[in-house]
Amino acid sequence: MLARIVGQKMTDNWGQQVVVDQRPGAGGLIAADLVAKSQPDGYTLLLTTGAYTINHTLYPKAPANLEKDFAPVSLLASISFLVIVPPSLPAKNMQELIALAKAKPGTLNCAHSGPGTTAHLGCEMLKSAAKIDIVSIPYKGTVPAIIDVVAGQAQLMFAVMQGGLPQVKAGKLRAVAVTGKKRHPSLPDVQTISEAGYAASDFVTWNGIHIPVKTPKAIIARINGEFDRILKLPDVKDRMFELGLDPVGGSAESFGEFVREDIARWAKVIKEANVKAEQ
Fold it and tell me: What's the mean pLDDT in 179-190?
């Protein structure tokens, strides 16, 4: 959806049709391989996500390497997660959730959308940071995981904002914390996970743009400037907010540093929790 939003704005401004070519599969590795092998002329871009910085460690032999084969262009959006629990759980905030987990070790299930996903690594980060014994339970996607938290079959989950917020607003789930640097405007009373005292468990996922590594810097700068312009448009900002996306922008260099830090963060979690790629 984000690719279509910004792609249409580029088409409108440049007078040249921007085509969104969806290449699903293998956690984005198929699309990455295609773009990595394309001409470095600025005409083929890769919409990257937080999954790419996780896959960098999970799939070290992947045909395309995010750091070696691509140049960063723009960080389009930051996406926070909600720590959600069923309303029946006796935990009104993050501190009470951690206290409950410590009082009942090994009994709280942390639902997630599959091995190596951001939600899974969120469970593992919290286990380490809070020194609690919770059980990571994989599901075949975000929706079935949320359904089981609503039903009380699982007791907590790191749910991506656009997946968890509607259920929280409907009263079917309780949010005890939000990841990211700031509270969500729709949930002003819900602490950030750092405010709750667990900064070591803080993370976001994201959407960005990468380009073949040999693309000239002048082309990268022009495309970066175009995305910065688009992200400031009121209608784009409003639509992104509806989708749970926080517009970011900034320089290609700052995005590159962000990606390096994200790779290092997830590599540490994956190694310490002995997470393996799903076969």
Answer: 94
Q: What is the pTM of this model?
A: 0.92
Token digits of residue 244 = 């749970």
**How many domains is the chain partitioned into structurally?**
2
pLDDT digits (tens, 9 = 90+) for 100-124: 999 999 999 999 999 999 999 999 9
Same domain membership, residue 87 and residue 196: yes
Based on the fold, state whether residues 51 and 189 are members of the same structural domain. Answer: no
Q: Taking a C-beta distance cutoff of 8 angstroms, is the pair 53, 122 a contact?
A: no
Which of 172, 201, 230 is the C-terminal boundary of a domain? Answer: 201
The tens digit of pLDDT for each residue in 208-232 reads 999 999 999 999 999 999 999 999 9
The vertex-124 CA angle with 74 and 25, nearest 5°, equals 50
The pLDDT tens digits of the residues spanning 129-144 come to 999 999 999 999 999 9
